[in-house]
Amino acid sequence: MPRRAKVEITYDGTAGKAKVAKAVSSTSSSVSVNASGEVTYTVIKGDTLWAISKRFLGEGSRYTEIYDANKDIIESTAKAHGKPNSDHGHWIWAGEVLVIPGTTSESNKKTYLSSGSTTTKSKLGSKIEKQLTSFSYTDEANGKSDSISLTMYDIGREWMGSLMPEKSAHIKAKINLDDWENADSLECGTFLIDDISFSGWPLSCNVSGVSAPTNDDFKSLPQSQTFEKTTIRQIASQFATKAKVSLVYDAPDIQIAEIEQKKKTNSAFLYDLCEKYGLAMKVYNNKIVIFDMVAYEAKKAVMTITDKMIESWSYNTTIEGTYTGVKLSYTDPKKKTISVTIGKDGRMYSLNTQASSRYDAELQAAAKINEANRGIETMSITVFPCTLVASQCVNVKGFGNIDGKYFIDQIKHSIGSAYKMQLTLHKVQAPFKP
What is the dihedral of CA 323, 325, 330, 336, to 10 degrees? Predict the structure, then answer.
């Protein structure tokens, strides 16, 4: 029987526009059109330029466009309220009438002021499927969001023209398999389109997407705040609720006496916090997933991959960047400097950090050495599709001393002339524990 792999795409092409049109319906008394034919918005109490930009332009990060178009009124109002300046739009006040840039054309005004919904192109997903020339899905175990990349031919120049994909719109992908042994259909998840490019000849369109919450503040808006007497689970839960996604937390409750988030996005701050204590984090299909790396490395292998199953492979072992122990110095709540050592003399790593107790310091020291030592033995293999996901363990067999239990750090699914999976692995080492 012939083996087939087909990518199923769900995409309407208008998700971004529909959301904006609904948000700025003419039922809002603060939205109007001035004498020059431009759409204007009257600021109300609690507004920020980021929120206004997200509402009208679809992306909060485009707030500088609104600031540049209204710089004079924003700065003069700030001075009238006793401020030396607006801090580049940080300070705005109720009653300011702001012009929304790029809204003078009739088509744009309809987008911003129409009380009806925009046209839904429900068949764009199937059109992409028919014109798809290559597709890849990268499944990450830790430190990154999952991502996709797809390329369509564009001989008719539709994707360059009327069907040009929307940045920040959502696209969903699934790989359906027929007649493959040891493989099932794979839900890749939902992705935010973040990059669009065209090339020729022949003319083609490439679209890339990243798995991210619908609330882009999670990855785009730097924030400063202090957390006291809490846990990593509670911080992650707070961020997940704000980002309107669910939280999957499979790790011990790690106590945090006090920690400061200083001008970091919630995403970057949470990644750093998890890494500090040996936890893995990824964003997948509208979920924030956090798990204990050492615990997952200790799980049984889900399958054995032999040399006969592998199309190509590479292996590396090194001592560079790996350690036999960690010496950690920290200042306790009584301002006393204390040293903690984990492991044994040899290649020692020195670390200075904040810690609330000796156990807290030992947790951080163990996390640091375990993370470094995951680079001792690494492998990259290309295999025909099988049912595996990043964060699982497999046994590798048929390579002599290279054999052993490996953890899957990344899987890249590629579909073009054939369907293949490239696995990036590290050999499971005996962990250091506090």
Answer: -150
